[in-house]
Amino acid sequence: MAGGVNTPQLAAAVSNAGGVGSFGFAYSTPQRISEDLAATKALTNGPINANFFMFSPVELPEHALQQIAVEALDALPVREHFSLSIPQRPFFPDLDKQLEPIWDQRPAILSFHFGIPPGRIIDKAHALGISVGITATCLEEAIAIHRAGADFVVSQGIEAGGHRGTFEPSANDEQLSTVALAELLVRHCAIPIVAAGGIMSGGDIRAVLAAGAKAAQMGTAFLCADEAGTPPAHRDYLLNRQDRGTVFTKGFSGRFARGIENEFIRRMEGQPTLPFPMQNTMTAPLRQWAGKAGDGEYQSLWAGQAYARSRPMRAGDFMELLNTELAAVPKTNSIVNGKF
User: Fold this and answer.
1) Cα-flanking dihedrals φ and ψ of residue 216, to 5°?
2) How far is CA 305 from CA 63, 119, 273, 277, in A?
3) Strands 162-163, 193-196: parallel, antiparallel or unpaired by DSSP?
4) How many CB atoms lie under 10 A from the CB of residue 106?
5) CA triplet 186, 192, 195: central angle to 5 degrees?
């Protein structure tokens, strides 16, 4: 979970409770990455995962298309509260520079979203004793991940919050459920599968384990943890706007991501956007203003489909609860209709 939701305190609490604490370092500077990992190391000896985006080369569209994308944001009723400008190079962080603190700090796991890193990165991680995992949303992507030499696949079901991990944004998305995708990948992949998407309880964990996954990855379930850096308005919508539901939007970043439906998403439906991550850069001032103003209608409230089952508490207590719930569900429990 990028964007400040992950904190050293949250990652450490999860690791201290027997899990793997994670950081989403999508847009982070090398300095911030180094500081976060060092701070976490001071709080735990447990395993940590550092996750990065695999950005694809991108160019600004022709001027006319830029203007149309600008006009869509310019028409928002809160336009007076934020600046608006076309992004300039570099459009995304340099992955090699972002990884410099990884080679120094050596977290247990290095993972990637949106694609496969160069082989030299996987080889270097392995040489330093770091395991590598990569997100897949379909069998074709999972097979490519296996062939690239990764240690495991993060199987992202359609229920997951945040950005879809598809390698190619314009390709057809099979939109398989968390359980269905895990079952498919387990049948055809020789490396471990970690299931992600809509997992909110110990019962949900048991369901993906029954599907053959070796572990479960949870994001939304920890957004309301005491230690999370989730903005107040985001927490409020997770806990008190449970009737909203979630939808996919390209409006915030230029790439499909699932979040709680709000005014911004409704107004941007069908509107043109700049390519990812240029749109993300262009909407940053809006999101920053909304965060400071506590206005959830113009924030990117990323959340999984099952966010209504969020439970606010300390991360360590939540981990204990998950273990209790997991133990209460028999290992022979069957999956009905491919759902939790």
Assistant:
1) -120, 140
2) 37, 34, 24, 23
3) unpaired
4) 16
5) 70
Give the contacts of 120 (CB within 8 A, at least 6 positions apart).
none
CA-based nearest residue to 136, from 149, 120, 152: 152
337 has pLDDT over 80: no
Asked if pLDDT for residue 338 goes beyond 70, the answer is no
Sheet holding 109-113, edge to edge: 21-24, 48-53, 109-113, 131-136, 152-156, 193-196, 215-217
- Contact (CB, 8 A) for 283 and 295: no
Q: Which two tokens stand for residue 325?
A: 């719930």
Over residues 142-150, mean pLDDT: 98
239 phi and psi angles, rounded to 5 deg:
-95, -25
Residues 6+ apart with CB under 8 A from 84: 70, 73, 74, 282, 285
The answer to whether 112 and 54 are in contact (CB under 8 A) is yes
Q: What is the mean pLDDT of residues 89-103?
A: 98
The 10s digit of each residue's pLDDT in 198-236 is 999 999 999 999 999 999 999 999 999 999 999 999 999
Cα gap 214→195, rounded to integer Å = 8
Which two three-digit tokens encode residue 133?
Answer: 């995992």
Summarize pLDDT for 21-36 with one digit per residue, the tens: 999 999 999 999 999 9
Per-state percent for the chain, helix, strand, coil, to nearest 5: 40, 15, 45
Helix pair angle (315-328, 8-16), 10° resolution:
40
SS3 74: helix
Rounded to two decimals, the pTM is 0.95
End-to-end Cα spacing for the chain: 23
Residue-range domains of the chain with CATH: 8-328 (3.20.20.70)
